[in-house]
Fold:
Amino acid sequence: MIDHRRLRVALLGAGSVGSQVAHLLLTHAEELAERSGAELELAGIAVRDVDAPRDVDLPRELLTTDAESLIVGSDIVIELMGGIEPARTHILAALNSGADVVTGNKALLATHGAEIFDAADQVGASVSYEAAVAGAIPIIRPLKDSLAGDRIKRIFGIVNGSTNFILDKMDREGLSADEAQRIATELGYLEADPTLDLEGYDAAQKAAILASLAFHTHVSIDDVHREGIESITADMIEGARRAGFVIKLLAVCERLAAGGAEGADTADADGESISVRVYPALISRDHPLASVHGGNNAVFVEAAAAGDLMFYGAGAGGLQTASAVMGDVVSAARRHIAGGVGVGESPRQNLPTAPIGRIMTRYQVTLEVDDEPGVLARIAGILSEGGVSVATVEQTPSTDAEGRAHIVIGTHRAREQALSDTVARLQASDVVERVVSVLRVEGE
Ligand code: HSE
Structure:
């Protein structure tokens, strides 16, 4: 039953997600009231420019440039402006005034999450952020609530839609990186600053948020090892295809046992650490992640009791991401009606972040060499001295006038440090003309 309370909702930002959220609040008011137990009154929408064109027509009388005044007296503040400031100041002001906050601001949470969650705890308010990671896919609440009694070993997946779109176009249509990026830009898939997507910052922010929840530890973007897709060429995609792989930009959040073996499920936390990383990697074409096409996202969660779980769906899009925001708004409204404090974070485990050199992985290395007797033996010697065991070797016959060939070496699993040191030694050796590419192999 609706208790005829009215909750004042302030919306900060009316971009592609914000304008859809405003539209849903206005057009679904009755249903939302039934579900949340109170009328949700959209008190106003703070924007930078009231005359800017928008995806959805919004009542002009709701638009204001005065976010500070709008926040005062609000029960729920929805922050969809993005960026660090003034979003951080507005969220802290909202929490300090007793409002619950709903945000999709991954950059802010990945850098100032600890400050914001502490502020919420102090006043007993809630901060919800389902929209911050993987668009429409419910992944935050499952990690925070549904799996809170389990022990997460690993999270692994595609959390950036625009780079997935680009890599997928290159793979399926044979486009160059520049052509695929141009199409992604035309379709509005890339962030206003495309380097956020292309250089892996966006995925790293999301990985930091997921790892914080999974490992009950504050993880900031500075703790995330990050490599983007700038170096991925059509030739590398084609080489991967020939070898039965596809290249995906992956986020990996992993619990490392003492000593560095991945995926430990021992109950003893002593000496454990975590690894949080984003990089392009080879995935077998048989792996379910290989069939995540276009701008979609998919996240695998490996938990000690639950086993393997997979979350899949739209990773971006105004309306799709607005769905995640609206779920948080209804929850915040229910909390407001029921009373009591908001469910805070539980970052008490404080696991240290291990350097990238400690992870275990497989490499696939492509070398350009002179096609002469003894070359392969010298390469094998360098790999053996580095303690790296070879799983596969393939040589592409020389076609160029200089008689150079490509040798593709797949390694067995080894410590990243040993692999990267060995690649450096190969690079420096006189038998290797050029290290053409180095990619990790994941998902096996
Ligand atoms: N730039 C992001 C992406 C948008 O491509 O996934 C959604 O967070």
Observations:
- The first helix runs from residue 16 to 27.
- Residues 260-269 have pLDDT under 50 and may be disordered.
- Residues 184 and 190 are 6 Å apart (CA to CA).
- The pocket of L-homoserine is lined by residues 135, 160-162, 191, 197, 202, 315-316 (CB under 6 Å).
